[in-house]
């Protein structure tokens, strides 16, 4: 006998519609997520030296990246680097590891840079482009970002041999706008900042995920969705957390509809911590 998936069977769903793991199959293409994805594709197709995507924690940046990776063909070599930190020389080791380029103990920075350059030129000679994606790039220091800018010096002539995609939280914008980063900023030719969803987008988002999991899309009342939007400020990851708890509470109350009262119960029991400490959105 199959094990029930928490509340999913009760609501007639094939799976939990609000799981927190990024899943491109569940992606809701809001207007701004379509624009952000178009910027990513434009950055690649136009051979932009650096593409920048920023947004609040949980805004859907990683899900967009996974959707992008699913669409890239074999002519693109991707190095994905998450949470890279460290000083000069360490960043280039992160890059070489992401590209599966072997590193010998004791190699100097010059040797590592030469090895990376030879790899990129070799891929270019075989008709392939190399893209480095830095997720959570707000963790990079000013020195780290400057080192990334220097990596783009590998490019020469009219063709871009190496492209960078920087993805991170709003603080990344602040880093890039630092006066010391003028040279880096000049190489960013494609950028987009993801903002939280408004109420109509939140309504469509919740309905979309429910229908994708086999539901009607009407399991939540409009009043419940309005309160969810107010509490989560329309940040997708927080919407997922709140909706997941709400459906769990509805299941335990033997209700097939998530009402405003059920949302109030979730909030009263203080099981939803996600909304605590949400920073105010800075103007673009």
TrEMBL record:
InterPro entries: AAA+_ATPase, AAA_22, ExeA_AAA_ATPase_DNA-bind, P-loop_NTPase
SUPFAM superfamilies noted in UniProt: P-loop containing nucleoside triphosphate hydrolases
Gene Ontology MF term list: ATP hydrolysis activity
Domain (AAA+ ATPase): residue spans on this chain: 47-191
Transmembrane regions: none
Domain of life: Bacteria
One Pfam family recorded for the sequence: AAA_22
Record protein name field: AAA family ATPase
Source species: Fuscibacter oryzae
